[in-house]
Each structure stands twice: as C-alpha cells, then as structure tokens.
Amino acid sequence: MYSESPLKISQSFLAATGTRLFLHHEDRIPRTGPMLLVSNHRSFMDAPVLMASVGRTIRFACHHYMGEVPVMREIVTSLGCFPLKESGLRQQHFFDRAIELLQTQQVVGVFPEGAQPMVKFSPPDKLGKFQRGFAHLALRAAVPDLVILPVTIASIEESVSSAVPLKLLSLFDPSEPLFAQPGWHPLVVYRRVNVLIGHPSWISASQREYYQGKQAKAVVAEITHYCQTEIAELLRRGCY
C-alpha cells in the first residue's frame, strides 16, 4: 500500500472506512499549477478527505511528534506529509519546505487553526481563529500564478472515541504545551462528510508589492480574513 501515491492511498483508505464523501463546487478546483490549500481541521482523516476531493496529491505539514512515533511516521510520510522540526526550528523549516514544493508546481495544504482542534474535541460546526503563517507563506513564495484555495470539511455523521493520553505524546515532543494537559487525544472518524470548495484567490503582484514595511501587516490580515470568512460561511452551509 505504501508504494502507491498519496492520492491512491487516500482513496483506498476512505473506501476501507466506508466514508461517504459529498463534494460541492468541484468546478472551482484548479487542476494544474501551484496551489496553497487552506482548510479547517478536526480529524486525522482530513488529509485523505481533501486529497480524494481535490484529486491531486497534497503535501501537508504535520506536527513534529507524528514524525517521531513509530507506525504513525510511516503513515504520514506515505500520505506525502512532512513532519515539522522541533520547537524553535519549526517555522523556518515549514517555510523552506513549502516554498520548495510550490516552486515545483505542487499543492501544499495548511490547517491554520493549528493543533488545538485535534487535541481537544470541538463540534463539527465550530471554527477556531486562524493563524497567519499561511498568508506569509503565500506572499513570500514568489511563485507565479500561485492560487489559494479555501476548502471546508463539514462532518454530518461521525464517531468519536479516545485514542491515547495526551501526556503520552509528550514523550515524543516535550516542547508542545498541549500535551501537558490531562485528558485523551480524540479520534474522530467521519461516516458522512461534506467537502465544500471555496472561491480560489490568486496572489497578485500588487499584494506582493505591498508585503513590505508597515503595509505588510494589512495584506497578511486581508488574505487571512478572506480564507477564514470563506471557510466559515461554507461550514455554516455544510453542517446541516
């Protein structure tokens, strides 16, 4: 199985779990060229769900500990994910690797809510505050025709159980404060899920031009706000 492409693995995984996926606004998906896919995030199934929906291999950055835990490491790397470095080196490693992938016309996937929704269970219709790193990445990449595609995953039927104690994961990444709290890492398995594609937005030359000095903060906020607003509206419509 691991010798297959991440897209094939994702499709096989969803077939094996019996997950029913309903894709909306498929016509908005760019089929070629570099793309930064931005999505909400609640489950380990999000990466294969998004790949099966978009029909392209997506290179996701994943948490450092996922590259340290045996078996999990093999699973995430077979899906094309790249585990981030330990705390302190994490951000620069993310930018370097993601820009390299975008420059070779690949798709990079980001979850701007961070790890919190994965570690602490949240209801399907809740969206956390977006971190702005993906907007900085899009503007720094200097990749022609780079498109940002907001995508919403809206679970309409799922099962939730407990995977592992959070403090056990601190053995693999002691620098992560989320693993210092009591409780268990939730395991969310989608049974039926809506995937809604937002309107793509191409990074313009003027946006890159404004990404300097005092203007940089405003253009980063603009891109972040656009994606969060688009995903929030699609989530409201998708969770029925």
Automatic annotation (TrEMBL):
Example of a GO MF term: 1-acylglycerol-3-phosphate O-acyltransferase activity
Pfam families named in the record: Acyltransferase (PF01553)
SMART domains from the UniProt entry: PlsC (SM00563)
Residues in Phospholipid/glycerol acyltransferase domain copies: 35-156
Keywords, alphabetical: Acyltransferase, Transferase
InterPro entries registered for this protein in UniProt: Plipid/glycerol_acylTrfase (IPR002123)
Gene Ontology BP annotations: phosphatidic acid biosynthetic process
PANTHER family: 1-ACYL-SN-GLYCEROL-3-PHOSPHATE ACYLTRANSFERASE, PHOSPHOLIPID_GLYCEROL ACYLTRANSFERASE DOMAIN-CONTAINING PROTEIN
Protein name: 1-acyl-sn-glycerol-3-phosphate acyltransferase
